[in-house]
2-dehydropantoate 2-reductase (Microbacterium aurantiacum), 345 residues
Amino acid sequence: MSPRIAILGAGANGASLGADLIAAGLDVTLIEQWPAHVEAMRADGLRVVSPDGDLHVRPHVLHLCEVAELRRPFDVVLMLMKAYDTPWAARLIEPYLAGTGILVGVQNGMTAPEIADVVGAERTLGCVIECSATMTEPGVIHRHTGVSRSWFALGALRGGPTDRVEEVRRILAHAGTVAVTTKIAAAKWMKLVSNCTLLVPSALLGLPMLDALHVPGFRRVMVAAGEEALAVGEALGHETLPIFGLDEDDLRDPRGVVEVMTDRLFSGFVVPGATTTVLQDWTKGRRSEVDDLNGEVVTHGVLCGIPTPVNAAVVRLALDVEQGRRMPAPDLVDEMLAAVDQGAR
């Protein structure tokens, strides 16, 4: 019998992933907190516009408040909430997770331990996601990286359900390439390194990712932020791993891991016109995940005695934007570059 699957957080990435699973004939329920999006999907279905071709499905979808009305548990829940929503979202869905059910954190940030705190490590899988999508209109997703260019890494924490990884891998394989790892915490940190280089820094410039890359000095900012994050990860005991299509030889490249990863990210995953989730959040007047990304590096840098001036500058500027003191603009690169120079001294 097909497992009952829930997508908890059916925003741009969650809905596009859910559409792939529905098209594959799986039993999927979407759970979403934006009322207009839920009602649009109920009325007209879900449309995903992608380089692979448009996809239109009619999902079973619930408002977040309707979770309390559920009577049958889910076998697999794929969580695609914001990192800062992880603790309460895990508690929300835990009563509706089958006794042998799995909760998979398909999101940015180091969220797997927070999920395990709620449902237990034995029911937790961690997942790295590399998929770019945008939603500005309810019920319509613009997915920039189709299935052929989307990528996941999947694994269990220590004490986790290693025997269930293949089952979830087969599910996610309908939405992209899936790599299985026995070192999911390290893989998640490597994704954090990549996120620290790009998500918030490019959003601070108010530009799509590819456009930001061409702002003079921005590449220096990206590499410096990533190298700080990599150093903190190493101090925490996270192994440097090849992700996003890298291999072991890439880790020995004289240019450095962060530079190689940045080049591979832009050549394989970033497409013209695509903006980061952070800039999308700011455009909608929402807070970003900066505390769970660059802020995570700063916090652990302090604990490990490793300076992180570039990530600290990114956090400070991002909070200024979110509190209305600044606006995203290309000239903010100058303040980030000043932090790069500070770190080099």
